[in-house]
Amino acid sequence: MSPPGFERVELVGDRVRLRPARPTDAADAYRLVSDEEVLSRLLWEGPADEAEMSDVFRRWQAGLETGEDYNLAIDRTDNPGLIGCIGSRLREHPLQANVGYWLGAPYWNRGYMTEAIRLICHFSFEYLGVVRAHAGVFVGNVGSRRALEKNGFSLDGTLRSDVIKRGEWRDEWFLSLLRSEWEGNRERFLPRQEDIVVMRSGE
Fold this sequence. Notes:
With about 200 residues, the chain is of the alpha+beta class. About 30% of the residues lie in helices and about 35% in strands. The protein has one domain (about 5-200): Aminopeptidase (3-Layer(aba) Sandwich), CATH 3.40.630.
């Protein structure tokens, strides 16, 4: 069974809201993700300019509708405007969600990413039917690892020389959350509000 596409996705927590990224978010996103403090923690080297960022968001919109990928913008609930992005990618296996994310440096250490991960896990297990959510984190990125662990992710191990970053092989921590673990504590992952509309067949 193919992963579903979505007409609307909005998940609201106490601190953040997840919603589709729009081309009009490109200026904020480019400014935040181009920060070396952010890029050094990502496999991605970021967009070349705002126009490329806008193109990325157009592809994300299409992927959300077709079920190819599920990438969303992160807003603060008290002040709308993109502060980061998070996604659930099922390309490698339709029942395993590879969770990837970034957050602008001015918003670190405030609980925003911890809640964004919580919301994307709810979406992945509840609406995509995955059996496992997993994430890779560069060894040494303690803040990112803690955000995952606060959501019940467990460290499965260290993947040595797993990815190349700027010509250098990097080790990654591999963390995962199983469906049974989510089901045992699913109330914790519930958003305050959600507006999810699956694409109708034939659209």
